[in-house]
Design goal:
The complex is a heterodimer of chains A (799) and B (102). Chain A is of the alpha+beta class. In chain A, 45% of the residues lie in helices and 23% in strands. In chain A, strands 1, 2, 3, 4, 5, 6 and 7 form a seven-stranded antiparallel sheet that branches. In chain A, a hairpin with a 4-residue loop joins β11 and β12. Chain B starts with a strand and ends with a strand. Classes of the chains: A alpha+beta (799), B alpha/beta (102).
């Protein structure tokens, strides 16, 4: 779904609040207005019927009063019918609603004027009042109800409306009152007629007026009618039903009972308004009871007329509100959009900046907040552009430096001997060296060259790494070269390098260095060690080259370095390394370590490897120990295998052991190698193994008190058919040959185990001799190599 | 060097010695054979067919085993001696100490 813009969200929220507010206001206003308008319409129609009521009452009252007021004159002149006629004519003339009036006398009241005598005055259609005296024969009037009623009621009464066929031919009601003479004799009745035509016309006009003024265009319009006290229609728009039908009958025809009760209320002389369904149209009915006449004026108004104005007004309010809301929404939205538009341009600008175009201009903005953002954005853009420029410069210079470092590295590598074998024409020496730098340039160095049948070699490690270390390394290497040209003694060479290094060492960088000079004729090695790791002599007697503790180069110019000497047996490899090799660590910070390297060197020694393979294999042991962890320090390895002038007649091997029975497996490997050389068969091999192990373990157990540290040196030589094993140690004097030979049967019986070892040595060796020379125990064991043994050996190999 | 104890049935248990029983491994092997001493009234066979080499310390270990098993009323046999090891047994008189099976 697409997310709404801020403008939309904000305007929608404002709209929602406004809509709720306006809905409340509108509904209140709507209902009040509608109700008010309905009230107004109701009161209008109420006014109409009340007015009609008043008018009817006024008219009837005028006629009644006119009749009453003339009673005295009539009764005074009762004897003169002509004057009575004049009275009646005056009455009609003075009273505009009185359509006619009459005096009906008792039979034979004026005998001279006939049996049935009547005086009549009326207004003709032109408005002229006329009079006549009649002598009609209608004897039944004396028994008419209206005639009787005139006498029964002291003040007289209005007759129910009737259709006057005799005179006006109009709907008429008559006020009837009785007349007495001075003697109180019954004379007759006075009837004052009111034609209801005016009322009919009036209602017609009112209806028409209503239709014209208030009800234009409505399908159902209001109409009014009048009923008398027994429900008969007196006035009705439909004139056919006047005097012929009754309201209650009409009401009874509908299934609705509400109108029946309304009709009952009317009959009971009440006034009011009710809501009914009239001829299928929901309508209000207003009715008002006319007191004297006992009529009821009724007007029926359809609902829609009553409510129309209210509805119209409410609709107008609704529309105005709706239009207002829409206007507010549009204005609000436009305002927000115009204020937020800069943000969109900011987004565009930010994208531009992201693409690296820092020259984008930001639009001017009106609102303060957005302006703050604009300023911040601008500042960011400017500083970003500055930083990028700086970064570009830095990167460029870094790239240049890296390039230079690469060149430095290759120069450094060129300094190191890199052609192997370096002296392919020589058979007496086999050298292999390798440097693996942790960074582009390192601080390790080694070098070697031959001068006057002497091999000058050195290995060193500059404290620190990187370019400074590599520079010092380059200087140290050239110092080694120049000093080695000048001197032969390692002591002199090292001291010369030290002096030069101290002179120019303002940065206090120091170098550990081992340097040696190997006489290739004699195998004599002169060496001097300036704080470097002790090299390993790998061969028949694998051991560390003993080194004196001299300080590294570059610290003290006056330091007197010691020089040591060692005879290197042909076949021995001088293995030199830097501390990056022994201090290589696994991921959980376990060091490869010098001891482990030494053990591996012993293991490899038995294989009599050439120097290249030796370096590769021992490096492999370190690699597999640390397990793929990138190296932290430079590693340099240099193996120098001295073959010497090989004398096939001399066989010599040696091994140096700690006084620890755990060294026995090393011894086993060593003896195994010798047995290979001697081509011994399994039995003889095992015999030699067992005798030597017993002798060695014996020394380990008895020559050194428990818990003290010591060494054993085992040297093996072979001359003609004799193998000579010489075991030397510096422990307390101990002569195993003094032990009495065990009686095998005896100890089996005793189950005692002493002297078993020396018994085995004696059994398997041809001769065992002990000497104490220079505080050393020297045990010499000789094993004869008889022909059969050798023969067996060769047989075994063939088999 | 590896020492394995294998229970063959309700009456017999076999100790298999594999490799070189020299001085450097004797102590370790001594610990490995310790469970053997839980067996009482068993026939114990020490299978040396894969034993390449034995030194005096190894012999001493065998003697210790023998003594402790005797205390447990076990019968001990040794079988599968290689010529090399058999030579040592003969040299030291151990052939008299153990019943040796072919």
């Amino acid at each position: 779904m697409k997310r709404l813009t801020l403008a939309n969200r904000l305007s929608i929220r404002i709209m929602m609040v406004l809509m709720v507010m306006s809905a409340i206001i509108m509904s209140v206003v709507y209902f009040i207005t509608k109700d008010q308008m309905a009230r107004e319409a109701e009161s209008r129609y109420e006014g109409i019927i009340l007015h009609a009521n008043e008018k009817i009452r006024g008219v009837l009252s005028d006629v009644y009063i006119g009749a009453i007021n003339n009673l005295d004159d009539i009764e005074r002149d009762i004897t003169d019918p002509d004057r009575l006629q004049a009275h009646l004519e005056r009455m009609v003339r003075q009273n505009m609603y009185m359509s006619s009036c009459r005096l009906i006398f008792e039979p034979d009241f004026y005998p001279e004027r006939g049996h049935n005598y009547e005086i009549y005055a009326w207004r003709d259609s032109s408005g002229v009042v006329k009079g006549k005296q009649m002598n009609e024969n209608h004897p039944d009037y004396l028994v008419h109800s209206w005639y009787k009623a005139a006498f029964e009621n002291s003040e007289g009464d209005w007759t129910p409306p009737y259709f006057d066929r005799a005179a006006s031919h109009q709907l008429t009601t008559t006020y009837m009152t009785h007349i007495h003479d001075a003697a109180g004799r019954r004379v007759g009745v006075l009837g004052a007629d009111v034609s209801l035509d005016w009322l009919r016309l009036r209602h017609k006009r009112i209806d028409a007026e209503n239709h014209q003024r208030f009800e234009k265009g409505f399908k159902n319009q209001s109409y009014s009618f009048i009923i008398d006290n027994d429900g008969t229609y007196l006035i009705h728009p439909n004139e056919k039903i006047v005097l012929k039908r009754k309201l209650q009958d009409v009401a009874a025809q509908t299934p609705d009972t509400l109108d029946d009760s309304v009709v009952r209320n009317m009959m009971a002389g009440e006034s009011g308004l009710s809501h009914i369904v009239n001829e299928g149209v929901s309508s209000w009915v207003f009715y008002s009871f006319v007191k004297y006449a006992e009529w009821t004026v009724v007007i029926i108004v359809p609902d829609e007329i009553i409510y129309h104005n209210g509805n119209v007004l409410a609709t107008i309010i609704l529309v105005v509100f709706a239009v207002g809301l829409i206007l507010i929404y549009i204005l609000c939205h436009r305002f927000l959009v115009s204020n937020i538009r800069p943000l969109r341009r900011f987004v565009h600008a930010a994208n531009q900046v992201a693409k690296g175009n820092f020259d984008v201009q930001l639009p001017k903005v009106k609102s303060r907040e957005v302006d703050a953002l604009r300023t911040a954005f601008n500042d960011m853009r400017v500083s970003l552009s500055r930083y990028i420029d700086e970064l570009k410069d830095a990167t460029a210079s870094k790239a240049a430096m890296e390039q230079e470092l690469k060149i430095a590295s290759s120069i450094q590598m060129q300094m190191l001997p890199k052609q192997y074998p370096p002296f392919p024409e020589r058979t007496d020496i086999d050298i292999f060296g390798e440097v693996v730098t942790a960074k582009e340039v390192g601080g390790d160095l080694f070098d070697f060259f031959i001068r006057d049948e002497k091999l000058f070699f050195s290995i060193g490690d500059v404290a620190g790494k990187g370019v400074p270390a590599s520079l010092v390394m380059a200087v140290a290497r050239s110092m080694f070269r120049s000093a080695s040209m000048q001197y032969v003694s390692p002591k002199q060479i090292v001291e010369s390098i030290n002096r030069s290094a101290c002179q120019s060492n303002d940065s206090f960088m120091f170098v550990t260095l081992f340097m040696g000079v190997l006489d290739l004729e004699t195998g004599r090695l002169l060496y001097s060690n300036a704080g470097h790791e002790p090299p390993v002599l790998v061969g028949s007697n694998t051991r560390f080259l003993p080194v004196d503790n001299n300080i590294p180069l570059g610290l003290r110019p006056e330091w007197s370095y010691t020089e040591q000497e060692m005879a290197i047996m042909p076949g021995t490899t001088v293995f030199l390394y830097t501390d990056g090799f022994t201090e290589a660590e696994t991921v959980d910070l376990k060091q490869y370590g010098r001891d482990r390297m030494f053990k591996e060197a012993i293991r490899l020694a038995a294989k009599r490897l050439d120097s290249r393979t030796f370096v590769r294999d021992i490096r492999q042991t370190e690699r597999s120990f640390v397990g793929g962890i990138p190296q932290k320090d430079d590693i340099s390895l240099l193996a120098i295998k001295y073959r010497g002038k090989i004398d096939p007649k001399l066989y010599y091997r040696s091994i140096l052991l700690n006084n620890d029975v755990q060294e026995v497996p090393m011894l086993t490997v060593f003896i195994d190698g010798i047995c290979d050389d001697m081509q011994l068969d399994n039995m003889a091999r095992s015999a030699v193994q067992l005798a030597i192990e017993e002798a060695v373990v014996n020394v380990m157990n008895y020559a050194y008190p428990e818990g003290t540290h010591g060494h054993l040196l085992l040297e093996v030589t072979q001359v003609d058919d004799e193998m000579r094993f010489v075991l030397r140690d510096r422990g307390q004097a101990f002569d195993p040959t003094l032990a009495p030979d065990v009686d095998v049967k005896d100890y089996v019986a005793k189950r005692s185990v002493g002297g078993l070892g020396i018994h085995l040595v004696r059994h398997y060796m041809d001769s065992v001799r002990y000497e104490r020379i220079d505080n050393k125990n020297v045990l010499t064991m000789i094993k004869k190599l008889n022909k059969t043994t050798l023969q067996d050996g060769s047989n075994n190999q063939e088999g | 060097m590896e020492a394995t104890i294998r229970k063959d049935d309700e009456r017999r248990v076999t100790l298999i010695l594999d490799g070189r029983l020299d001085t450097s491994v004797t102590q370790q092997t001594e610990k490995e054979v310790e469970p053997l001493f839980d067996y009482k009234d068993f026939e114990v066979v020490i299978d040396c067919s894969r034993l390449e080499y034995i030194s005096s310390s190894g012999l001493r270990l065998l003697m210790a085993i023998d003594q402790r098993l005797c205390a447990n009323h076990c019968d001990i046999y040794i079988k599968g001696l290689s010529p090399v090891v058999k030579d040592v047994f003969q040299t030291t008189g151990f052939v008299n100490l153990f019943k040796i099976k072919k």
